[in-house]
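re: ur msg from earlier - yeah i can do the acetoacetyl-coenzyme A complex, just paste it... oh wait u already did. ok heres what im feeding in:
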Amino acid sequence: MNFTLTEEHIAVQEAAREFAQKELLPGVIERDEEQRFPKEQIRQMGELGFMGMMVDPKHGGGGMDTKSYVLAMEEISKIDASASVCMSVNNSLVCWGIEQYGTEEQKEKYLSRLATGEIIGAFCLSEPEAGSDATSQKTTAIDQGDHYLLNGTKNWITNGNSSSVYIVIAQTDSEKGHRGINALIVERESEGFVVGKKENKMGIRASDTHSLMFTDVKVPKANRIGEDGFGFKFAMSVLNGGRIGIAAQALGIASGAYEFALQYAQERKAFGKELVQHQGIQFKLADMATQIEAARLLCLQAADLKDQGLPYAKQSAMAKLFASQVAMDVTTEAVQVHGGYGYVKEYHVERLMRDAKITQIYEGTSEIQKIVISRELIQ
Ligand code: CAA
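and the outut:
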C-alpha cells in the first residue's frame, strides 16, 4: 500500500482541520456539558461536503475515497467526537448502505438529501436485548402484502432525535434466523413512530442518542433494502465500513488529546523548566505519538482495501480494536501530562478521555472485533 497522501487528500484534511478549529472548538465544552446537539455545525458540515463524502456526485455526494473520509474523521474527532459520530453514521451506515444496496428510487428519494446533509439518518440495529447478539432481533416487520407492519423498540440510537430517515433492522420470519431479517427505510413522520428517552451519557454527550418505539408502523415494501431476508447481511456489511469510521474517530480522539498534551507540556513549567524538557514527559509523548501513528496506518490500510474493492472486514475490525485501545491509552496519558488541570473541563482532555470509551463499545465492542478477526484467521 502507498501511504503517500495526494494533493486532494491533503486539501480535505486541511479543510476539516480548519473547520474543526474555527467552528467546532468554540462551544464544544458547553455543548458537552449541556448535552446540546451541534445542529448548526452539522448543517455547515453538510455544506462543506462532510456528510456524504464517498457518495457519487450524481447523488449529491463528494465522490471521494475512503482515505479522505478517514482523514476528515480524524480532524473533526480531534475536537468534537459528538459531531464526528453523527458524520460517521450518516456517511458509513446510512449513505453507503443506501448507495450500495438501495434501489434507484430509494437513492433518488433519500440519498441526495442525506449526502448533502439537508437531512441526516440513523441506523437502528441495537435493542434492549440485542446489542452484540445482533441476530436476536425482537423488533418485527410482518409482511402484509404491499407493506410491512413494524413493531418493537430500538435502543442507543445515534442521531435518534435529529434524523429524518431511519434504517431499521427487524425480524420478518424468526424461523429463518438471520435469513429472516430485513432492513427497512422508515420516515420520521410515519404514524406509530415515537422518539423515546434521551440517554444521559458518560461521553459524546452532545450527540443525540435515543431509544425509538415503533407501534404498527406501516412501511411500504418499496422501502426494503435488498432482497427479502437480506437485512442481517446488510447490517454486517455496513458495519464493516462503519468500523473504519469509528476507528478514525478513535484515532482523532487520541491525536487531539496528544496535541493538547504536547502544547501544554511546551507551555507549562515545573522544577525550573518546561514539562517537555523532563524525560518522563518526553517518554510519554514518544509512546503516544507511536501508538497514534500505528493506529493511523491501520485505518488507512482498511480504507485502502475498501477503495480497491478488496475484502476489508478483518482490517476494519483490527483498525477499530487497536485505535479504540489507543484512544483510551493516549487520552489517559494526556490527562496525566496535564496533572490537576487535566481533571477539569477547561483543558479538553478529560472530555476526550470520556469520549474515547464509547469507541470500544459502539459498532461492536472490542470483544466483537476479536470475534470478527479470529473468524477470518481460522477459516
Ligand atoms: N461481514 C459480512 N458478513 C458477515 C459478517 C461480517 N463482518 N459477520 C457475519 N456475517 C455473515 C456470515 O457470513 C453469515 O452468513 P451465512 O449464513 O451466509 O454464512 C451471517 O452473517 C450470520 O453470521 P453468524 O452466524 O456469524 O452470526 P452471529 O449471530 O454468530 O453473529 C457477530 C456474528 C459478528 C457477532 C454479529 O452479530 C455482530 O457483528 N454483532 C455486533 C453488532 C454491532 O456491531 N452492533 C452495533 C450497533 S450499531 C451502532 O453502534 C451504530 C451507532 O449508533 C454508532
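cool cool. The longest helix spans residues 231-267. ping me if u need the other ligands too
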